[in-house]
């Protein structure tokens, strides 16, 4: 595996996709409707593991700030980072309009922040982002560096198999038109076994895997045991032996 630096684990074509759609980020009936529909489920999953109120939370790949702002409204001190400039400006303006002050947005990579602020965060979220970078395992390693001991990182992404191609690309992009065509590339999807290995390599303990299933009739998402398409993962940074002894 080629090792990438802190600033080049970025795909310019992926950045361009989201820059072009930025103005519609907060429209719940736009191309970002799936993110709006997913947001309550993602937040509920996080809530089942930790109360974010009063904690320092990092949202990696925050885009226009849908999850970041929800976390801030729960009382967390939130930093959202992304490499797309226009969505970040949209996120800043929306937070200002909503009067959300306990939130900050910065244009930078997770690797850059890990060099700058290691061990500073209680919670990290990285949702629907890993499938858009060249080296997702580097993001997972950066999460471990950024977390405090005992801190939790939450990921969501898409499995790689024929069913996920059928549902996440053919179905979501071409049949149901939930997403713009070309949003996803099948080869960038990540199997749960691969993400689990990324976490293990980064010394993050996997706490749970859960599937997210879309119902085209109710147009809503629910948690399931089926991780064959969209799925979530909860992980935890283990305290070192010295820290465990001291506590």
Automatic annotation (TrEMBL):
<dbReference type="InterPro" id="IPR029063">
    <property type="entry name" value="SAM-dependent_MTases_sf"/>
</dbReference>
<keyword id="KW-0949">S-adenosyl-L-methionine</keyword>
<dbReference type="InterPro" id="IPR013216">
    <property type="entry name" value="Methyltransf_11"/>
</dbReference>
<feature type="binding site">
    <location>
        <position position="127"/>
    </location>
    <ligand>
        <name>S-adenosyl-L-methionine</name>
    </ligand>
</feature>
<feature type="binding site">
    <location>
        <position position="82"/>
    </location>
    <ligand>
        <name>S-adenosyl-L-methionine</name>
    </ligand>
</feature>
<keyword id="KW-0831">Ubiquinone biosynthesis</keyword>
<feature type="binding site">
    <location>
        <position position="42"/>
    </location>
    <ligand>
        <name>S-adenosyl-L-methionine</name>
    </ligand>
</feature>
<comment type="similarity">
    <text>Belongs to the methyltransferase superfamily. UbiG/COQ3 family.</text>
</comment>
<protein>
    <recommendedName>
        <fullName>Ubiquinone biosynthesis O-methyltransferase</fullName>
        <ecNumber>2.1.1.222</ecNumber>
        <ecNumber>2.1.1.64</ecNumber>
    </recommendedName>
</protein>
<dbReference type="InterPro" id="IPR010233">
    <property type="entry name" value="UbiG_MeTrfase"/>
</dbReference>
<feature type="domain" description="Methyltransferase type 11">
    <location>
        <begin position="58"/>
        <end position="155"/>
    </location>
</feature>
<feature type="binding site">
    <location>
        <position position="61"/>
    </location>
    <ligand>
        <name>S-adenosyl-L-methionine</name>
    </ligand>
</feature>
<dbReference type="GO" id="GO:0102208">
    <property type="term" value="F:2-polyprenyl-6-hydroxyphenol methylase activity"/>
</dbReference>
<dbReference type="GO" id="GO:0010420">
    <property type="term" value="F:polyprenyldihydroxybenzoate methyltransferase activity"/>
</dbReference>
<dbReference type="GO" id="GO:0032259">
    <property type="term" value="P:methylation"/>
</dbReference>
<keyword id="KW-0808">Transferase</keyword>
<comment type="pathway">
    <text>Cofactor biosynthesis; ubiquinone biosynthesis.</text>
</comment>
<dbReference type="Pfam" id="PF08241">
    <property type="entry name" value="Methyltransf_11"/>
</dbReference>
<comment type="function">
    <text>O-methyltransferase that catalyzes the 2 O-methylation steps in the ubiquinone biosynthetic pathway.</text>
</comment>
<dbReference type="GO" id="GO:0061542">
    <property type="term" value="F:3-demethylubiquinol 3-O-methyltransferase activity"/>
</dbReference>
<keyword id="KW-0489">Methyltransferase</keyword>
């Amino acid at each position: 595996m080629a090792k990438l630096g802190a600033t080049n684990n970025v795909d310019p074509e992926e950045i361009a996709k989201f820059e072009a759609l930025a103005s519609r980020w907060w429209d719940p009936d736009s191309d970002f409707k799936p993110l709006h529909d997913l947001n309550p489920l993602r937040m509920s999953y996080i809530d089942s593991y930790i109360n974010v109120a009063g904690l320092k939370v990092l949202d990696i790949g925050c885009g226009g700030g849908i999850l970041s702002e929800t976390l801030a409204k729960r009382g967390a001190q939130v930093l959202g980072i992304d490499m797309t400039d226009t969505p970040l400006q949209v996120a800043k303006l929306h937070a200002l309009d909503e009067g959300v002050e306990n939130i900050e947005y910065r244009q930078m990579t997770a690797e850059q922040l890990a060099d700058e602020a290691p061990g500073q965060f209680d919670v990290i979220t990285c949702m629907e982002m890993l499938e858009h970078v060249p080296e997702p395992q580097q993001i997972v390693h950066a999460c471990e560096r950024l977390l405090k001991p005992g801190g939790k990182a939450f990921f969501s992404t898409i499995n790689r198999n024929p069913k996920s191609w059928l549902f996440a690309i053919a179905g979501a992009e071409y049949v149901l038109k939930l997403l713009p065509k070309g949003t996803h590339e099948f080869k960038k999807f990540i199997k749960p076994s691969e993400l689990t290995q990324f976490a293990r390599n980064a010394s993050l303990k996997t706490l749970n895997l859960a599937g997210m299933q879309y119902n085209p009739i109710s147009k809503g998402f629910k948690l399931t045991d089926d991780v064959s398409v969209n799925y979530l993962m909860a992980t935890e940074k283990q305290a070192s032996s010295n820290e465990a002894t001291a506590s």
